[in-house]
Amino acid sequence: MDKKFLFKLAVKNLLAHRLRTVLTLAGIIIGISSVVFLISFGSGIQKLVTQQITGGDAFQLIDVGTGNSQIIKLNSETIDKIAKIQFVSSAETITNLGAKAKNGDNTMDTAFFATNEKYLDWSGKKIRYGRSLSSDNKQAVVNTSYLAFITKDNPESTLGKKINFDVIIPKELAKSGESDTKANQDFEIVGIIKDDSSPSVYVNAGAVSGWELLTFSQAKVRVTDRSKVDNIRANIEGFGLKTQYVGDTVSQVEQVFSVFKIVLGSFGFIAFLVALLGMFNTLTISLLERVKEVALMKILGMNKKNIQSLFMAEAVTLGIIGGAIGIIWGVVLGLTANAILNAFALRAGGDPVSVFYYPFSLIMTVVLIAVLVGFITGIYPARRAAQVNALDVLRYE
């Protein structure tokens, strides 16, 4: 029998009992949308946390330090050796110093970092106002926590403002082996980072080049081929240094969120299971009500295979329609919830985020599950319908 005709007949049979069909579809839609909503929430949280950990291209970055070693030094000579390793494109450094920020008669302890624009970018330090560091050694990027010390005005109004520090060089970094203070160091604010944790100031490494610092505090190494990270780390550690790679942390995070998504998906699956039972019940009752119809179709020439295909078509149609609408509804619910969360975040002065993520693999998996469920729930009613004996029905009905 023509498949197009079977499909039309299946749709007609479903529309003949509209209320039952609508209630069955509602159950499927609720189940599918619950699965999509909950798993996309887990995926969105995972992606958000991973982005916070990794930043932009952090999978191509290796953090390098000396650990607790008092012997190994991360100096210019070591950095040059690292930069010459195969598949390393560049190595950038940061030096952690202390400073006493001054504003009139007021002073405040602040962290003071000598680095460059690349290191800031690789560290995920995004400039909210103004611009990043340049080659000018008298420019500085500060965070909003530091700004609270010098002004209560709009952060943008401080761009171009002169600031003054007494920079403290710890004895561990000083070539002389004694701590030193570089008094009255003036800088101009050119950029602002939104960060209210602790006061921090970043200046170009050239600003401290004449201070005879012995070592750098840390370095970030950018690789050209992510697959070579293990070899590069081994080479760097061969110099006695310690390395950290964000991929190690991300793997642990992904393991935790895999369990989290399974738990969320389980709650959605309960609703989906209820919908499955409702769909099975609808098809079974439909068969019992249509025994005479099935007998008549057999007398008119439809064979067992056609009868079975008809009931399977009805089941799969319910699965496809319910699955499609369920996916759309799940996405709409997610987008609505995300918009509400962002509205609260913006009102509180935060940044908008996306806590729902719909990977293509999730959507395709749900579509396949919906079709598969329709197929499986239709097997029993379809087989029962194919086994109806037309003569017995005519004899007793």
Describe the structure.
The chain has 397 residues and is α+β, with helices and mostly antiparallel strands. It has two domains: 3-54 and 251-396, no CATH class; 88-219, no CATH class. The protein contains eleven helices and ten strands. It has helices spanning 3-16, 18-54, 76-83, 117-122, 144-150, 229-237, 246-289, 291-299, 304-347, 360-386, 390-396, and strands at 61-65, 88-103, 106-115, 127-130, 139-143, 162-169, 180-193, 200-204, 218-223, 242-245. Strands 2-3-8-5-7-6 form a six-stranded mixed β-barrel. The radius of gyration is 33 Å and the shape is elongated. The model has no long low-confidence stretch (mean pLDDT 82).
Q: What is the string of helix and strand elements?
A: HHEHEEHEEHEEEEHEHHHHH
Alpha-carbon distance between the termini? 27 Å
Q: Please tell me what the overall shape is.
A: elongated
Mean pLDDT: 82
Low-confidence stretches: none
Q: Count of DSSP E strands?
A: 10
Order of strands, widest sheet:
2-3-8-5-7-6
Helix proportion: 40-55%
- The tally of helices reads 11
Strand content: 15-25%
* Largest sheet entry: 6 strands, mixed, barrel
Report Rg: 33 Å
Overall tally of domains: 2
Short synopsis of the structure:
This protein is of the alpha+beta class. It has eleven helices and ten strands.
